[in-house]
Amino acid sequence: MKRLFQLLIHSLKTNGRDWTVFALSLLLAFSIWLIHNLSLEYSDFIRVQVRAESNIAGHSAESANTCEVSARCRTTGFNILKTGVFERNVRKIVFKASDFRQKSADMFYLTSANLNEYAHEIFGEKAGVEYYLSDTLFFRFPVEASKRVPVHPVRTISFAPQYMGIGELVVEPDSVTISGEPYHLANVDRVFTETIKLNDLKTNTSGVVSLDKIRGIRLSEETVHYHIDVTRFVEMRYNVEISAKNVPPDKEMMIYPAHAEVVVRCVFPLVSDLSDMTFSVDYGDFVNSRSGKCIARPDYLPEGIIEYELKPEIFECVLNEK
């Protein structure tokens, strides 16, 4: 017997290369056999975890729970392997609100008769449902409230030398509707954008930015548009007189100091004469102040002034009888 085995080995005249070719051939044959068998159709039970999404008025868009949908399906071996082994994640299925029946305040259900329309979404395009094991699916859609809140842009902006923004960065829409369970909404009074980073601006700039998501809350908008006007400016300094206005005829209001330096930033090139700027302290502001110290306000600002700064900012006022 031993001699017979030796003769058999010798007749094959195998070496390392022959064994490699043999192993690769065997692997290729197995692969062809496996692909062929997986491409055939089989009848088997498939189970899929489903989370429901729907537009039910006054309720959350997504169910708080998941349900297992079980059915005997006729489909390819690939689909059975894919659904049963490789895809263990919960599938989100969008159901029509009209397909649901309400059981309680936040509990809704679907019957197997309603599931036929969604069979391919649940079990795959190539699956044919023979019958369902899951007779009724119950999903809880929490009751929701909603309110309108402002959008707060989060930004870091820098300008090129001799350039500045005209006004603030503007977002549109400047408010959104948030929806969620009442206890989720209680402490939310605004929503924030992702950080808008703009550097060395020289021209008007606009774009789109996403809103930060808030756990348990839906936003009516996922993004907003932003815009900021940018202009080139020139900075100039003037010495101006600070006057008093609306003072009763029988009184006299003295202002100290009587002159101030005003630093103005203007659109470049200049479009008007800036020398006729006037500033004053209103008698009404003096009456309402406790210390007699008031802020001077412009009576007239020529066209093209973007912003100004008075030095000093606060003036001492003294009232005398005539």
Summarize the structure in words.
By secondary structure, this protein is α+β, with helices and mostly antiparallel strands. It has 3 domains: 39-140, no CATH class; 145-232, RNA Polymerase Alpha Subunit, Chain A, domain 2 (Beta Complex), CATH 2.170.120.40; 233-321, Beta Complex (RNA Polymerase Alpha Subunit, Chain A, domain 2), CATH 2.170.120.30. It contains 7 helices and 23 strands. The strands form 6 sheets. Strands 10, 14, 16, 18, 19, 21 and 22 form a 7-stranded mixed β-sheet that branches. Strands 3-1-2-6 form a 4-stranded mixed β-sheet. A hairpin with a 4-residue loop joins strand 4 (101-102) and strand 5 (107-111). It is elongated.
Q: What's a concise summary of this model?
A:
The chain has seven helices and 23 strands. By secondary structure, it is of the alpha+beta class. It is elongated, with a radius of gyration of 39 Å.
Protein traits:
322 residues; alpha+beta; RNA Polymerase Alpha Subunit, Chain A, domain 2; 23 strands; elongated
The tally of strands reads 23
The global form is elongated
Tally of individual helices: 7
Q: Portion of residues in helices?
A: 10-25%
How much of the polypeptide forms β-strand, as a percent range? over 45%
Element string (H = helix, E = strand) = HHEEHEEEHHEEEEEEHEEEEEEEEHEEEE
The averaged pLDDT comes out at 83
- Identify low-pLDDT runs: none
